[in-house]
Design goal:
CATH class: Alpha Beta
CATH architecture: 3-Layer(aba) Sandwich
Order of helices and strands: EHHEHHEHHEE
Number of strands: 5
CATH topology: Rossmann fold
Radius of gyration: 15 Å
Largest sheet: 5 strands, parallel
Structural class: alpha/beta
Strand content: 5-15%
Shape: globular
CATH superfamily: 5'-nuclease
Number of domains: 1
Helix content: 40-55%
Distance between the termini: 25 Å
Number of helices: 6
Length: about 140
């Protein structure tokens, strides 16, 4: 049963130059309960494409293909998520607060799938109402 939705900074940590060992331990212990949102999958592929060849690019491609893709289901930004996102985005705009669109997509996928969003940067998601957030990096 899924419990956690992983942000890009969580999924990419294992191949960082200096991985956070607390985060790695939590990710390993909970991997069976984790998924990634479609926008995070996009960010991972996009980031890999920007590397444009070389050893680092090959290593990231292999990590995505052999570790991430088989380990974590990718959850879509579907009609239910778009509806929640639109309501939250309007509420925040009316309050004079703008958040990155992709963060809203990620938050919406977490909320509509009743999952806790795991991120190393919880402040990016703090304005969304009713969203459960965990920081595995501390």
């Amino acid at each position: 049963m899924l419990r956690f939705l992983l942000d890009t900074n969580i999924v990419s940590n294992p191949i960082a130059k200096k991985p956070n060992h607390k985060l790695l331990a939590r990710l390993t212990a909970n991997s069976l309960y984790c998924a990634i949102p479609a926008p995070v999958w996009h960010e991972l592929i996009f980031g890999c494409q920007l590397l444009a060849g070389g050893k680092r690019c090959t290593a990231v491609e292999q990590y995505l293909k052999n570790v991430v893709k088989p380990s974590f289901p990718v959850l879509p930004y579907d009609e239910s998520a778009t509806h929640w996102h639109a309501i939250e985005r309007a509420r925040l705009e009316q309050a004079g607060k703008t958040v990155p669109f992709v963060d809203g997509q990620i938050a919406a996928i977490a909320k509509r799938n009743d999952l806790t969003l795991v991120t190393a940067n919880p402040r990016r998601f703090a304005l969304f109402q009713g969203l459960n957030i965990l920081n595995w990096s501390t």
